Amino acid sequence: MKNKKIPLLEIDNLSLSFNRYKDEKSYKKEDLETIRDFSLELYEGEILSIVGSSGSGKSLLAHALLGILPSNSTIKGDIKFKGEVLSEKKKEKLRGDKIQLIPQSISYLDPLMKIERQVRASSKTSLSHKRQRESFEKYSLHEKTEDMYPFQLSGGMARRVLLSIVDQKDSDIIIADEPTPGLELDLAMKTLKHFREFADKGKGVLLITHDLDLALKVSDRVAVFYGGSVIEIAPVSDFIKGEKYLRHPYTKALFNALPQNGFKSIPGVQPLTKDLGSGCAFYNRCNLKTRACKNPIEMIDIRSGKVRCIHAT
Fold this sequence. Notes:
Layout: E1 9-21, E2 29-42, E3 46-51, H1 58-66, E4 73-81, E5 84-85, H2 88-94, E6 99-102, H3 115-120, H4 126-138, H5 155-166, E7 173-177, H6 185-199, E8 204-209, H7 212-218, E9 221-226, E10 229-235, H8 236-241, H9 249-256, E11 300-302, E12 305-307
Parallel strand pairs: 3-8, 3-9, 6-7, 7-8
Antiparallel strand pairs: 1-2, 1-4, 4-5, 9-10, 10-12, 11-12
Helix pairs in contact: 4-5
């Protein structure tokens, strides 16, 4: 992979919060921050995986990029597509076309619309029908699926329909939010191969997942998400070479938690962003912590990657 000067997608110091009531008995509201100081770049020809635990806010990032957040949300920071800042109006124009989402939930399918109409959207040309049939064949969906409603599909079939929908447009970026749950292993691996083929055409894939092992099978780089922010971005080759080539203590712990690396666990749980101070999000679980770790920590370049840690070498 050769990085271009201008990324396909650039996220700079993105913060996301939601205005909500403090509790059921109070009329007072508060801003709950879910993502803070989030920055990364996605380049042409690249699959970049964002890896973090379930419920950590990764899907909210995808929704922020596409402008499909609820009205009580507030976004700060810049999002750029091919060097141009994305306003909410521009996000609306690009989503479903140049930037496409494979959502995590199959509930995104319209329960009142037949599958063929959903896959082909408003296009009724013979070319769109041919493309839809080709994608059905690619994802092992029978022709009779066209005439079904979502409730008639199995979970795996619905997942494959979502993949087929993305196949209909000549996009520049695919944001794949946990795209393989419910798929049999061979079909999941086939899907990852299709992502690789898409990226190799000069496109970009942002793969959002809780599964580090999955990310390492197909990605060029991995961005580790913790406490609402990216704490390390590393090439997959560093994970392959081993723990000592990684930079952040949490990334090393995540690496060691893989079954093939001993299935080692560490005490504690990931904190909510509302409970974080201004320093390192991993502070309470880190064996290397010092008083300086409670201060704001910037992302720095180390070797061929980036890290948010003052102890990294």
